[in-house]
Amino acid sequence: MEKFVPFESRMVPMPIDNIDTDQVIPARFLKKTDMEGWGELLFNDWRYETDGTPKPDFILNHDWAKQAKILLAGDNFGCGSSREHAPWALTQFGFRAIFSTSFADIFKSNALKNSLLPIVVSSDVHKKLFSMSDSSVHIDLATQTVTLADGTKAEFQVDSFAKQCMLEGVDELGFILKHDDAIKAYEATRTSTLNTLAG
């Protein structure tokens, strides 16, 4: 995974509540087996006509939106069924962070494991972000702060283990492998076999 470093980006406003994972990536695409090409399918049914041509009025089809790294969503983002394909599609499109007032727990977990930062903000900050959606926002995971264009700062919470992995640019397996020497040293001192039948 790519290390999560501080960055500044314009936001893509999508003021829709309860965007579920089937809207993010429709279930009919889940039979696809490779890891690439998910960004092209992001919000497919909102983004394309039935013949596959892009809808010119959908925000992700605007040139400037294709350069943005932040999605500004409505309340309760990522509800619905669990699927890692949702953060895959979002990150492959180019998003590194999402603002909302709340996220579905499973989506939030899947996002963090795929280096996509779900940032929960208060309703007041949420409204302010939408009022300034044509400006850039600075995100710093290390300090867990968001800085708006007018200088307003807001702190956010994030799971400490997920934060460490994202800052180091490793997934859970990569984190374990970083401790390979310590694991081997421990294994060398323990009994080679355990009698699980002993009372």
Report on the architecture of this protein:
- The protein has one domain: Aconitase, domain 4 (Alpha-Beta Barrel).
- It has 8 helices and 7 strands, in the order E-H-H-E-H-E-H-E-H-E-E-E-H-H-H.
- It has helices at residues 21-24, 44-47, 85-93, 105-113, 123-131, 160-168, 172-177, 180-189, and strands at 7-14, 70-73, 97-100, 117-120, 136-140, 145-147, 153-155.
- It is globular and about 65 Å long.
Name its key features.
199 residues, 7-stranded mixed beta sheet, 30% helix, Aconitase, domain 4, alpha/beta, globular
Average pLDDT, all residues: 91
Largest sheet geometry: 7 strands, mixed
Q: How many DSSP H or I helices? A: 8
Strand order of the largest sheet: 4-3-2-1-5-6-7
In terms of quaternary structure, what is this?
single chain
CATH topology: Aconitase, domain 4
Indicate the percent of residues in helices: 25-40%
CATH-level-4 superfamily name: Aconitase, domain 4
Shape: globular
Could you say how many structural domains there are in total?
1
**What's the total count of β strands?**
7
Name the beta content range.
15-25%
N-to-C order of helices and strands: EHHEHEHEHEEEHHH
N-to-C CA distance: 45 Å
CATH class: Alpha Beta
Low-confidence stretches: none
Helix/strand/pairing category: alpha/beta
Tell me the radius of gyration. Answer: 20 Å
Please state the second-level CATH architecture: Alpha-Beta Barrel
